[in-house]
Amino acid sequence: MTTRRALLGALLATAFGLGLPLALQFPAQGQAPAASQPAAAQAVRIGYLSQEEDPRIPLTFLEPELTDEGVQGARLALADNNTTGRFTNQKFELVETVVPRDGDPAEGLRSLAADGVRLVVLDLPAEALAKVAALPEAAGLLLFNSRAPDDALRNEGCRANLLHTIPSRRMLTDALGQYLVWKKWVNWALIVGPAPEDKLYAEAVRRTAKRFGARIVEEKAWTFDTSGNRRTDTGLVTIQSEIPVATQLRDHDVLIVADETDQFGEYLDGHTWLPRPVAGTQGYTPTAWARVNEQWGATQMHNRFERLAGRWMTARDYAAWLAVRSVGEAATRTASGDPAAIAAFVRSPQFELAGFKGPPFTYRDWDGQLRQPVLIAGPRMLVSVSPQEGFLHQNSLLDTLGDDAPESKCRKAR
Amino acid sequence: MFRFRLLATAGLLIGMAAPAAAETIYVTNEKDNTVTVVDGEKLAITDRIKVGRRPRGITFNHDGTRLYVCVGDDNRIDVIDIASRKVVDRLPSGPDPELFVLDPNKRRLYVANEDDNMVSVVDTESKKVIGDIQVGVEPEGMALSPDGSLLVNTSETTNMAHFIDAERHEIVGNVLVDARPRVAQFTRDGKHVWVSSEIGGTVAVIDAATKQIVRKIGFEVRGVKREAIQPVGIAMTKDGKRVFVALGPSNRVAEVNPETMEVTKYHLVGQRVWNLAFSPDEKRLYTTNGVSNDLSVIDLEKDRVIKSIPVGGAPWGVVVKP
Questions:
Q1: Interface of A with B in 340-379 (CB under 8 A)
Q2: In this predicted structure, what is the pLDDT of residue A237?
């Protein structure tokens, strides 16, 4: 049922794309409102670029191995855009481009650009994303980073053609930090995994501690080898004896773990030397999206997504949804299919996006990051939503998360 | 439990002794799965009626003897008999009904089903869904013109007010409003529709004939962040002279002068104010406050809040019976 629906959408989209290539590539500027042209719908094409990769195997057996993370969020937003498009006479199309494992993402972008696509969602890790965004062919495009949380992409590596719908690492750790400080759990121990991402996450945690007056009492690198298969008949015995030793750290209120690649963090809770809560990349986790959020209409979002994808929506799916919905919202508000008009509106102060987390979301003009609350998700329940009460800001409370304008190292041409 | 029942009975007796003009307030509690009954004279709780899961929208039937309650998590509408204070019947709806409106002339409920982009038309007599109207993403608010000919539905993610021919069940116009429209309300003369946008932070006043926005009302409360100003419930007096708008987590109810469409006053009420209802003499306004779990009572002559009544878990909808 689900597959059939997605397939039908793809077929329609393809048929449509073939039928109207000229109109799609060169939409006229300043078109009259859609209602006055009942015949031909305004076409809005959105590119979606990703690369084939091995599915991430979660350490827990409760989570599925995902092969369609990200793209399903984009597909749902496309369906949502098209529901609205029926009333505005606009037709949205998602041009999905998956570069093969040994291929070059740059080729993917070039082919999208050559096809006339001007608005592209990038579901790529930081390195590939930076390369793609720097291509000469990308200069006139509007790109959405829906996956890479890297702070460098928002600072030294920022670009005028690049917006970020996934929260940065600093936003995530600030969100967690605010909650822990609000709880008065201000003494943190930090365990850092071996992956490069873990080191970046740890950097963000250190910065958060300094910002909000928390203290990292001790830090430890994770050196145990947990890279083997997750399923063995004797594994638990080793875990139960290894983790207490590994977590013998100076007394702390909370143990923070930096394990973005999901190698060991799940093992900590229940095994720590001291009876302390675990937070960070596992345990109580700051995230853009989680199934445990049922407020602000999130229920409907979950229901629609689960009907479409047959699984729970992840932060990566959600960020892709936000990117495609940003385009839809701008197209509706401007009554235009012109990518330039859409891109201009997305960046304008008039732009606001509803994202099932309370306040409206807007893009920061200094680094292109989408302002949004961050969930503090427990494994079974929502713990809290940051920003927390008591953290103040002169413009937007959401700017207490991540790099604020004075801190930003982004010097892009605006 | 026994003690509670005793208290309730006592309340009932006192209620019967009170003047006939005293009103009764009914509040849906989203979290408790109850409808709280409040005596308007004493401003005290007299009863709690158990209903289905997640009760939100609430409205009277034509002769005021029954209450219809949307119980979203049970995908149906519960029918409460006011005399016995019990659920005596149920009506079908689509998935997750949230708000609805009763046709003043026909036995028809128009129900917004938040979960399937559909407005259902329910015959309250045959207890059947007799029609579906395809609308935008996440249907929410429902309003019907005074003559029953024009239906308005808001869709939260499409951000539109859909104008629907109530007889033919066809959309005749779509008006784009600010983000996450919630409540729609016709003026008594049927000329305008007021639509609140929760995330956009505005109320759009739409001309029902031309389907154009004639005015967008913004709100500003000193010391309150713009993000916290989230308009939801709208209430208008019968003479059309006073309009009140609930502003969600800003904990305020704004009074708007419909002549000038300017805000004249902000009333501080409980936390996260959802919906509003007048007393029959329109000397009072009752507000449901979802986070502080209470009902605020605004005295509209003195222009101030005179009481907060703890009513239940996450109070949401409110109606008043003379």
A1: 352-354, 358-360
A2: 67
